[in-house]
Specification:
The chain is an all-beta fold and about 400 residues long. It is built from no helices and 37 strands. A hairpin with a 4-residue loop joins β6 and β7.
Length: about 400
């Protein structure tokens, strides 16, 4: 994980509509007369993880007002985003937004903003490793889309979601399962969402999406290609061309409402991605004293039908906090309810003592079983009293922040 700060400037509009102003700022406008439409980009400070997890690059706003754009109805607007990392280094990333100034009185009066290029041509170096930055899309109402439908006579905003990825290969993962359809009985509108977070296209011909609970499979047809940053949805018994048009074709629900595991395998039957759902991770605030020990706790509950299995668990202490993992504080503990005892899983500690990573067997049966997890870190002498945030990451299962208050 890396803390980054972003800020953006609009560098070019091509072909240019009349009245363009604001180039080389974060707010570009166009249109004849005093009233103009335009784009704004507001960056900020955020935690950007390096494992392909999406983060918010900034906020995009389209000020959409009826304007005269002459004969130029479609054009590209180039954005340069400066990213500043914790060590003070900076990188400039370049992306293109495509604008469709639709006919305000036509069948679709809303303007359309899309992303013709998802990958910045530049690479960035973080902790000695090279990465590309891919824009996933615009996030609205919990859904990431590639086209931003902008209402007339209003200012419309959405988060621009991006991710770091290793260059030169595809990286296909299951990102979401929506198991509770709104169609009574068949739940035909259940779906699974799949993302290519890599920089190369993925040929998914013959790949299989498997529902563990019901045993149902969907096989992707020959010629199925998922582009970098692209998303597919596989519905239970509906077809939506805008998200690939894929369907199990099942008249019965495919996904268990309370919990299940979605698995994606390639044509060689190798597991590419696994997505368990139906669990709850709850932070447990704790107190610590200086000098002394801190014991960040979480509680995980499995409401599904299958055990959660082995997961890569990462605990990150705050970079500016008074906590350290030491050489003999390198375990994550789980209370095993079946055996009525503690199980310890040994991991590795980063050189700065801020990060502990371990493979943990979350042997929790379904049906609501739960267990506490905790670890131990040293508290510096003379630590400033107050609350500090410890980040727990469970990979596909999700993440949460725990508050440790130093007294």
């Amino acid at each position: 994980m890396s803390m980054i700060e972003t800020k953006g400037t609009w560098t070019a509009v091509h072909p240019s509509p009349p009245g363009v102003t604001g180039l080389d700022t974060n707010h570009v406008r166009w249109g004849k007369g005093t009233q103009k439409s335009g784009y704004k980009f507001e960056g900020g400070r955020t935690e950007a993880r390096l494992d392909g997890t999406e983060f918010v690059l900034g906020t995009f706003t389209h000020e959409n007002y009826p304007i005269d754009s002459g004969e130029t109805r479609e054009f590209d607007v180039d954005l340069k985003v400066q990213v500043r990392f914790e060590d003070g280094t900076t990188s400039d990333l370049n992306f293109t937004f495509h604008h469709n100034e639709t006919d305000n009185s036509g069948p679709h009066p809303n303007d359309i903003v899309s992303l013709p290029k998802f990958i910045s041509p530049q690479t960035v170096t973080v902790n000695g490793e090279k990465y590309k930055v891919v824009i996933s899309g615009f996030k609205q109402g919990g859904r990431v889309v590639r086209e931003f439908d902008s209402k007339e006579n209003s200012s419309n905003s959405a988060a621009v979601v991006a991710l770091f990825t290793k260059p030169g290969k595809p990286d296909v993962v299951i990102t979401h399962v929506d198991p509770k359809g709104t169609v009574a009985g068949s739940q035909s509108d259940e779906y699974v969402e799949i993302l290519n977070r890599g920089t190369e296209a993925a040929d998914m011909s013959g790949w299989v999406l498997h529902a563990d609970g019901t045993g149902k499979d969907f096989t992707f047809p020959q010629g199925t290609v998922l582009q970098p940053g692209g998303r597919f949805r596989v519905y239970t018994n509906e077809r939506h061309p805008e998200s690939g048009g894929f369907s199990f074709g099942s008249g019965q629900p495919v996904w268990h409402d309370h919990g299940d595991i979605a698995t994606l395998r390639n044509k060689e039957s190798r597991e590419v991605s696994r997505y368990p759902y139906g669990h709850r991770i709850t932070p447990q605030p704790t107190e610590a004293r200086s000098p002394g020990q801190a014991h960040p706790h979480v509680h995980i509950q499995n409401m599904g039908d299958a055990p959660l299995g082995k997961q890569k668990v990462t605990v990150r202490l705050p970079q500016d906090g008074p906590f350290r993992f030491t050489s003999d504080q390198n375990t994550i503990s789980v209370w095993n309810n079946k055996a009525n005892k503690e199980r310890k899983f040994t991991g590795t500690v980063s050189d700065d003592g801020r990060v502990l990573t371990a493979e943990v067997d979350l042997d929790l049966p379904g049906g609501g079983a739960g267990a506490p997890l905790w670890t131990q870190a040293a508290v510096d002498a003379g630590a400033t009293p107050g609350p500090y945030t410890v980040h727990w990451d469970f990979g596909n299962l999700g993440a949460t922040d725990v508050t440790v208050t130093v007294k």
